[in-house]
Protein 1
Amino acid sequence: MTAATDTTPAAAHQAAAAAAAGFAAVHGGAPDGVWAAPGRVNLIGEHTDYNAGFVLPLALPHTTRAAVRRRTDGLLRLHSAQAPGAVVELPVDALAPGAAEGWAAYPAGVVWALREAGYAVGGADVHVDSDVPAGAGLSSSAALECAVAAAFADLHDLGPEPAELALLAQRAENDFVGVPCGVMDQTASTCCIAGHALFLDTRDLTSRHVPLDLAAAGLRLLVVDTRVKHDLADGAYAERRAGCERAAALLGVPALRDVPLDGLEEALDRLTEPALRPLVRHVVTEDARVERVVALLDAGDLRAVGPVLTAGHASLRDDFRVSCFETDLAVEAAVTAGALGARMTGGGFGGSVIALVEEDAVDRVAAAVADAFAAAGRTAPRAFTAVPAQGARRLA
Ligand code: ADP
Ligand code: MG
C-alpha cells in the first residue's frame, strides 16, 4: 500500500523541476512554464454525466505535468515521458480530427479545440510527464488534456474559466480523439479544489465545492487499481449510453435525469422495452444517491456515506451491468474486511475501486483485497489512499 502522493509545495517544486529537466532533454533549453492537472476519482454518480445528472468527483494528488514553450513557426511538437519515442510534430494550422494518432491526439485535440473556439493559439514545444496511472479509470486522459489546456490558456493569455477549459478538453476527447466521454472528468480536473469534492450538475454545469475532510473524521479513501481493463469497455459504454438515450426518448423526457425518483416505478411500467428498465433504474437511483451523499457530507455524517457507495456498486453491477469480476471482488473483499462502503469508480469493466475506511483499517482492507486477488490468481492490485487535491494549476 503506497501512501497518498505528496502534495506539499516542495513536492510541486520537484515535479516542476523534473518536467523542466525532461523538457530540456527532449527539446533543449527551458520551458516557458510548467502546468499540472490531476486525475480524479468519482465518489458517487456513475454513468449519470451523459444523462444530464449529478456527479461528485474529487481530484487526486496524482497529476500530469505539461512543460510548454511557445514557438513562432506554428509547429506543435509533442513528447511524453509515458510514450517513449520520437517527438510528434504537427502544424497547428493543419490540425483536424484524424490528423494525430495515439496519445498525441489528446494534446493536439486540445489545441484544435481552443482554435475551433476562436482562441488564437500558436505552436509550442510540449513535454508531458505524469504519475496518473493510465487506463485505470482515474482519468489520465482528462489530466493530460487539462494540463495542456491550462498551459495554452495561460501562455496565450486566453482567459477561459476552468469550467470552459473543461468543455474544450471534453470536445478534444469527443471530436478529435473520438471517445464519447461526458464532461465529468475534465471538469473535475480543472475545477476541483483541495479538501473538497465537486458536486456538479452536468445539465447546467453549475457546481458547488462540498467539504470532504476525511482525516478530521478519522477516515480514509482507499483507491484500488485492479490493473485490468476489459476489451468490451468502449463498446459497452457506447451501448449503455445509446440505451439511456433511447429510454429517455421512449419516456418523452429530454434526459433520464428528468425522471423523478418518486416517479420511477411508473416510468418503468411505462417503458415499452423491458430491457431498458434496469438502465433507467440505475440512473434515477444513482442521481438520488449523489444528492444523498452530498446531504450527508453537508451534515458531517461521513460514515453514513459508506453504505450509499456499496448500494451504488450493486446498482452498477446488477442494473447497469458495467462491473466485472475484479471490481466485484475488490468491493466484496473490502466490505468483508470492514470497509464502511466500496464501489467501482469510472466507466467500469475494470479500472479502480474506492473504499471508505476507518483510518486504522486501511492496511487491513488493502491486504484483504490483495489476498483475494492472489487467491483468485489475479495480478496484484495497486492501492493508495487519496485526499481531495487541487485542480489544474501552474506549477512554475
Ligand atoms: P483513463 O483516462 O481512465 O486513464 P483512457 O483510456 O481514457 O483511460 O486514457 C488513457 C490514454 O490517455 C492512454 O492510452 C494514452 O493514450 C493517453 N495518456 C494519458 N496520460 C498520458 C501521458 N502521460 N502520456 C501519454 N499519453 C497519455
Ligand atoms: Mg479517460
Protein 2
Amino acid sequence: MAQYSRVSGSVCLITLQNPPVNALSAAVRQGIVDTVKRALNDSKVKSVVICGQNGVFCGGADIKEFGTNMSGPPLIPMIHAIEAANKPVVAAIEGSALGGGLELALGCHYRVAHSKAILGLPEVTLGLLPAAGGSQRLPRLIGVPAALNLITTGRHVTAAEALQLGIVDQVTDHSSVDTAVKFALSVAGQSLDSRRISTYPCPRPSDLDALFEEAMQKVRQSARGAIAPVACVQAVRAAATLPYTQGMEQEKELMATLFTSGQARAMQYCFFAQRAVGRWSMPSGARWDTSKPRPVLKAAVIGLGTMGRGIAVSLAQTGLSVVAVETQERQLMEAKQAVSGMLQRGAKRRGVAPALNRISYISNIQAVADVDLVIEAVFEDMALKEKVFQQLSAICKPGTLLCTNTSALDVDHLASQTRSPELVVGMHFFAPAHVMKLLEVVYGSRSSPQAVATAMQLGKKMGKVSVAVGNCRGFVGNRMLKPYLEQAFFLLEEGATPELVDGALEEFGFAMGVFRMSDLSGLDVGWRVRKGDGLVEPGLESGQSARIRQGRRYSPLGDLLCEQGRFGQKTGRGWYQYDTPGGRVAKSDLWLHSFLEGYRARHDLVARRIDHQEVLERCLYVLINEGFHILEDGIAAGPEDIDVIYVFGYGWPRHRGGPMFYASMVGLAKVLERLEHYHQAHPDVPYLKPCNLLRRLVASGSPPIHRWREVIKKHHSQL
Ligand code: COA
Ligand code: NAD
C-alpha cells in the first residue's frame, strides 16, 4: 500500500507501507501509481515527497513475488511516470534504499538521505541485475566506473558515500521526511528538465573498451561461473554505448535470461535460507528463538592460537570487554602483537579507532571469574578440554555461559565436566575467525534454550551467520566434509591427479578445490585426527591391509605425505609445491605425480581415465548423501541449515544454492541412481550407500525442497 497525505499545504507525502522493509509488492506498486496520479491531478499539490513507513524507505522488489505470476502494475512504467511528472518528486531516504527502492529513488527528481541510511543495487547477489532502469540511470548519474563497481558487486554505500558519488543531493542528521518536505517546498515550480536522469548523456570514458574488458575479466575471475555479474557488465556497457531506450531494451533482455536461470533461483533460495536458519526449535520442542538471551558484556577467550586470536578480535570489534587467556608466556606475547595488528588493520579499513583497550591479556585463568561468557579454543585434545571445563566451572560466577570452539569433539561430554551442563554449548567458528561469516552453534542434549539463544544472538552481533546444529562428530560442516575428502583420495588412487580433481571442483564454482584447500589448512590437521582415531599405521606400505582400516576401505595417501613432512603451504610442499614455505601459489609437482604412480604400482592399482563428471558426482553426491543422514539424525533442522553452512563456511558457490538445493536441482532420483551405481562399484565404501531418507524422498515423488521437512517428520515418526 501507499498512503497519501498533504503536509505544509502544497506538498503531497506518499508513504510506502509494507512491513518490514516496504518491499515493492503488487499492492505497493498499485498504491504508488494511484497516489502519484492523484498528486499530479491535484492542483493544490505543487510538489511530492515519497518516503517509507517505520524508518525504512524501501528494501526493493518483493523477492517473494519472484517466480509467481506477478500481478499489479509493472515497475518500469511506474518509475517513468514519476520521472516524467511535471511537479518535483523528492525521495526521502531513511533506513535503506536498495534494489528497486533505489531505482524508484533514481526515478525521482531529487534524493534526500538520512545520514544513517544505506543505498545500493544488490540484485547481483540474487542472481539478477537492476532491471527497473537502475543499470541505465546509475551510470548516467555517477559515471561508468563507479556504477560498474556498485552494480557488479551489489555493495551497499553509506549516505556519505552516496553524497560523494552524486547519488543523493542532500544528507541530513534530522528527519529525512521533514528535510525532504522543506526541500520539496523550495524547488516547487522550478524547471525539471535537468533532473530527469534518463535524459542525461552517459559520461563516456575515453578508454571505454579497455574499461569494460577489464571489468569483464574481473567479474569472470571472481564470479566463478555466476552469470549475473557478467550480465551486469553488459547492461552497464549498454548504458554507456546506446541511447536510453535501446539500453532499456538490453536491460530487459539480459534480465529475462537471468530471471529464468537456475542461478537466480539458487541465490534467492539462499537469501531466504539465511534468514530462515534464525527460526527454529530444538528437537525437545523448546524454542530457543523465543527465549530471552542473557546479556553478554564481558567475555573470555581461552587459548590464543589461530582460532583464539580471531575470536578475540571479533569479540572486541563487537564492543565487548575481552579477557584473553593463554598459558604459554611466549605465545601470549605473540598473540598480543598479532591481535593488536589485526584490530589496527580492521579499524583502518572501517575508518574507526581500534578497540585495543578492550582486551586484557593474561596467563592466569582465574581472571575469568566475572565474565558473562567464555569461549574455549585450546588444542583439540579431549583430556585438556575436560580439565579446562572443570576449571572454568569452578572459577566462573554462576550463570556464565561456557562455550567450546571444538571442531568435532563431544559437547555433551564437556558439559558433563561442569556444575551447570545447561550452560554449555559449542560455538564453532571457522578460520580466520574474525573474517569467516559462519558460526555453528552446537546444542548438547542438556543445553538450555536460553544458552543457545545467547550464543546465537552473540554470533549475530559479531556479524556472523549463526546456525544451530545438534551434537555429533564434526557437527554438520566437518561431518559432511569427511566423505568428500575420502572420495578425493580414492580418485587419486584410481588414476586422477590433484590438478584434475581441483579443476573439476573449481569449474563447478568452488573457490578452491579439495587439494588446494587441504594445502592451505594444513595436511597435518587431519593426520592428527586420524592418528587419534587409530587409523594411521606407519610402515604399512603394501599388502592388502594397507588400504583397509577398521574393516573399511581407507586411503593412506594423506598420511604418507605427512610422513614425508609435506604439510601443505606451511612447509612449501603438499599436494602441490610452493616457491617457499608459506607460499600461496600452487604449482604442479612432478614428484607427487611419480609418487602416485609408485603408490598405485605397489598396490596393483591400474590408473584409468577419470573425467570431471565422475569427480563431481563422487565428491559431491557423497557429501550430499551425508547431508541426508544429518537430516535423518535431526542434527540439522532442515536442508536450509546445511546449505547456509556450506555457502558461508565451505566455499560452496552461492549460485548453486548449497549442496541440498543443488541435489534438488539435479533431481533426487538422479542423485540416488548415481549413488547406487557408485556403491555397487565400490561396495567397501559405506559412505556411498544411499541414505534411507533420500530413498524415501524419491519414493514420495521428490517433493520440492521447501516440502522436505514434511517427509523428514513422517520419516522420524515411523522410525
Ligand atoms: N522482498 C521480500 N522480503 C524481504 C525483502 C524483499 N526485498 N527484503 C527483506 N525482506 C524480508 C526478509 O525476508 C525478512 O523476512 P522474515 O522476517 O520473514 O525473515 C524481513 O524482510 C526482514 O529482513 P532482514 O534482512 O532480516 O532485515 P534487516 O533489517 O537485517 O535488513 C535489508 C533489511 C533491507 C537491508 C535486507 O532485508 C535486505 O538486504 N533485503 C534485500 C534487498 C534487496 O536485495 N533488494 C533487491 C530486490 S531485487
Ligand atoms: P592452536 O594450536 O593454534 O592454539 C591453541 C592454543 O591454546 C595454543 O596457543 C596453546 O598454547 C593454548 N593452550 C593450550 N592449553 C591451554 C590452557 N590450558 N589455557 C590456555 N591456553 C591454552 O589451535 P587452533 O587451531 O586455534 O584450535 C583451537 C581449537 O579450535 C581446537 O579445538 C580446534 O579444533 C578448533 N578449531 C580450529 C580451526 C582451525 O582451522 N584451526 C577451525 C575451527 C575450530
